[in-house]
C-alpha cells in the first residue's frame, strides 16, 4: 500500500480497502472504527450527518480510474482519509 498523505507510519492505526462496489461505504467506515475501538458499531456516536452524503457522492460521482481524489475528516480522535479507489487510512490524532 502507498504511504499515507501528510502522515508518518507511526501514527497510522489502520489501512483497509473499502469495497467501492458495495452500496454503503458509511457502514464499512463505522465498522472499521468500531473494530479499532473494540466496540459494537451501535455504541459509536453518529458520524456527522453531512459526511454520509459526502461519502456517497464521493464514490458515486466518477469511476475510481477517472480521478485520484482524497476525502479526509476527523472522528473520535482519528483522522480518516479515503481515496476514491477505496483505500482508507486511519491516523490517530495527536493531542
TrEMBL record:
InterPro entries the record matches: HalOD1
Halobacterial output domain segment(s): 27-91
Protein name as annotated: Halobacterial output domain-containing protein
Pfam families: HalOD1 (PF18545)
Amino acid at each position: 500500500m502507498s504511504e499515507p498523505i501528510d502522515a508518518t507510519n507511526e501514527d497510522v492505526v489502520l489501512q483497509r480497502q473499502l469495497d467501492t462496489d458495495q452500496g454503503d461505504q458509511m457502514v464499512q467506515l463505522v465498522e472499521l472504527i468500531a473494530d479499532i475501538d473494540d466496540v459494537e458499531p451501535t455504541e459509536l456516536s453518529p458520524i456527522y450527518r453531512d459526511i454520509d452524503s459526502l461519502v456517497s457522492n464521493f464514490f458515486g460521482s466518477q469511476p475510481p480510474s477517472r480521478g485520484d481524489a482524497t476525502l479526509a475528516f476527523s472522528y473520535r480522535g482519528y483522522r480518516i482519509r479515503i481515496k476514491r479507489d477505496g483505500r482508507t487510512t486511519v491516523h490517530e490524532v495527536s493531542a
